[in-house]
Design a protein that fits this description.
Length: 441
């Protein structure tokens, strides 16, 4: 394998021998603990000072001197009324598709009789209080609100806490407000970054403590989520940080499409990453040329260019080697820009979400195809799944044993308890076996 940087400032313009793969695929790490230390200080401030810390951080980080920490139901409805019909229609379509896909994920499980008289089953219960973090900053993301709020509503979560950074006028935009009306959300808290995660993890005077926090963000948000997971009784969906895409392209790909897909990730933010993997050097060169042409036309050109400086292309001997590299990289988004995508599906072991063929851009999944766009990044696709309906549910196991079941299972339980030296466990079974009772217990 060989690699070439996308960085326009690199003096090295040709392919070079592949460096150590683990070093190449590492991203969004914090080697000197600078981000960790800053996030820990923010979390400590919120834990100690509550709402006051949130007001201070809004002024410091967002440049807004807030009069209150939330937008209420009346203001939400008023803001939502300003949305245009074309935009409303687009959000409605996305809402329909996302809801349809996530509703299909609910499955009632069967009861299983593991042996005569011993019945076991599993049932779902919603997580009671969930916190949704909707990123702001350089781009406001109503799509993320849909992706998190829809499965939370389907699951039946009793309380949904929503935090999003304030705009410069101290409010939110009409698109977030309209999504809030679709989801029957009557309050949005005006706080972002690590401080929003801390507020939902520990609670403040205004914001209730959540049982689980959802949502992507920058490295500070991601670091905050990983810290609070071990320091509070609040769970997280996954480490979902700066966005990334890996595109596998061969001679059957369309270079202009691939370049557009790479730039779609690059424009998210300067710490995003776009990786191209191909078995054909001429394909890579053509895509890079298209990349340069399309970059010049983007309103967010400067942001995309910074992301491309952290991105690269990999030349492999064949598609099998390309898939091997992809599985080691474990991308948030994987695009198979090849007419051989059907043959490659079985080779995928690590990916957040996969986009098949030349006509399936990653942006479809970001907005409206129906799948969830809150996905594991930074190689966490090796061990995490993306957000789904299950993310908002707890699976509780049940068992019921009849008199016949006691007779059947008691010998096994008693022997295993005795060999582990747990006499009380043995007795709990033995006392039932030796007493006379009715099945209607």
């Amino acid at each position: 394998m060989k690699v070439i940087s996308f960085n326009p400032d690199d003096k090295e313009t040709g392919f070079t021998a592949m460096p150590d793969i683990e070093t190449l695929i590492a991203r969004n790490i914090d080697p000197d603990k600078t981000i960790t230390e800053r996030v820990e200080a923010i979390i400590s401030d919120v834990k100690t000072n509550g709402d006051k810390a949130l007001f201070d951080f809004a002024e410091r980080f967002d440049g807004v001197k807030l009069e209150k920490l939330f937008i209420g139901a009346g203001e939400i409805r008023e803001l939502a009324s300003a949305i245009g019909e074309e935009q409303k229609s687009a959000i409605d379509t996305a809402y329909h598709n996302i809801r349809l896909f996530h509703e299909s994920q609910y499955k009632k499980e069967d009861k299983i009789e593991t042996m005569p008289g011993v019945t076991c089953w599993r049932d779902s219960r919603p997580i009671e209080k969930v916190g949704l973090y909707i990123p702001g900053g350089s781009a406001v993301l109503p799509s993320t609100f849909l992706m998190l709020g829809i499965p939370a509503r389907i699951a039946g979560c009793r309380e949904i806490i929503v935090c999003s950074p304030p705009q410069k006028d101290g409010g939110i935009n009409c698109f977030l407000a309209y999504v809030a009306t679709l989801l029957d959300i009557d309050r949005i808290y005006l706080c972002g970054g690590a401080q929003a995660v801390a507020a939902m993890a520990f609670g403040t005077e205004s914001i209730a403590k959540a049982d689980k926090i959802f949502g992507p963000g920058n490295q500070y948000v991601t670091r905050a989520k990983t810290i609070i997971q071990s320091t509070s009784q609040t769970a997280i969906d996954m480490p979902a940080g700066p966005s990334e895409v890996l595109v596998i392209a061969d001679e059957s790909s369309v270079p202009a499409f691939v370049a557009a897909d790479l730039l779609a990730q690059a424009e998210h933010g300067p710490d995003s990453q776009a990786v191209l993997v191909s078995n054909a050097e001429e394909v890579i060169n053509e895509i890079i040329e298209k990349l340069k042409q399309q970059l010049e036309l983007l309103p967010r050109k400067d942001i995309a260019a910074k992301a491309l400086a952290n991105s690269y292309a990999v030349l492999t001997d064949d598609l099998r080697e390309a898939m091997d590299f992809s599985n080691r990289y474990a991308p948030e988004h994987l695009i198979l820009a090849t007419d051989q995508w059907r043959d490659l599906i079985s080779s995928i072991s690590n990916a957040g979400s996969v986009f098949l063929g030349n006509l399936t851009p990653e942006s479809a999944g970001d907005y409206a195809s129906g799948t969830n766009h809150t996905l594991p990044t930074s190689a966490y696709a090796r061990s995490y799944s993306g957000v789904s309906l299950d993310s908002f549910l707890k699976k509780i196991t049940f068992q019921h044993i009849t008199a016949e079941g006691v007779r059947n299972i008691a010998p096994t339980v008693e022997v295993l308890a005795e060999l582990e030296g747990l006499q009380a466990h043995k007795n709990a079974m033995a006392v039932r076996r030796t007493m006379s009772y009715e099945d209607n217990y």
